[in-house]
């Protein structure tokens, strides 16, 4: 599987995880992650909102991971298969969405199609020092 998700320090770590294959034998590029907005919240001191767009090419997937912040995901196009630990894998189509509480272990996040791209919008709320993505150990 390849890397997913999401700055200064966490963004630098994310950039490395998103662009570097996890194993030397992997040649497929990771999904494309674009930060759309990174904004401190005036009405929630000590928290920021982060908006990220994730583009999956056909067949691409993310590494198993968790987030320190709360995440809400919305499928912009295509179909995404998502599974959080303790729940069944669900196939989400364009216009559908899900919620992940802070600390959830996201075991599966991948494009459901081997022939069509998929795009996901992720909105997170977290503290500036919290990590956006923490890879899970195998």
Protein described:
The termini are close together. About 10% of the residues lie in helices and about 45% in strands. The strands form two sheets. Strands 1-2-9-4-7 form a five-stranded antiparallel β-sheet, with helices on one face. It has a single domain, classed as Jelly Rolls (Sandwich), CATH 2.60.120.10. The chain is built from one helix and ten strands; from the N terminus they run αββββββββββ. With about 140 residues, the protein is mainly beta. Residues about 1-25 have low confidence and may be disordered.
Features:
single chain; 138 residues; mainly beta; Jelly Rolls; five-stranded antiparallel β-sheet; globular
Spell out the blueprint of helices and strands.
Elements: H1 9-19, E1 32-40, E2 48-56, E3 65-66, E4 70-77, E5 79-84, E6 90-93, E7 97-100, E8 105-111, E9 118-126, E10 134-135
Antiparallel strand pairs: 1-2, 2-9, 3-8, 3-10, 4-7, 4-9, 5-6, 5-8
Structure summarized in a few sentences:
This protein has one helix spanning 9-19, and strands at residues 32-40, 48-56, 65-66, 70-77, 79-84, 90-93, 97-100, 105-111, 118-126, 134-135. With 138 residues, it is mostly beta strands.
């Amino acid at each position: 599987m390849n890397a997913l998700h999401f700055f200064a320090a966490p963004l630098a770590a994310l950039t490395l995880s998103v662009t570097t294959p996890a194993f030397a034998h992997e040649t497929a590029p990771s999904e494309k992650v674009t930060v759309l907005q990174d904004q401190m919240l005036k009405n929630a001191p000590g928290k920021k909102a982060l908006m990220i767009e994730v583009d999956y090419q056909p067949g691409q997937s993310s590494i198993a991971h968790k987030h320190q912040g709360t995440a809400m995901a919305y499928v912009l196009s295509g179909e995404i298969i998502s599974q959080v630990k303790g729940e069944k894998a669900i196939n989400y189509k364009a216009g559908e969405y899900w919620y992940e509480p802070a600390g959830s272990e996201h075991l599966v996040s991948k494009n459901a199609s081997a022939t069509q791209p998929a795009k996901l919008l992720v909105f997170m709320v977290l503290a500036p020092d919290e990590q956006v993505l923490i890879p899970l150990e195998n």
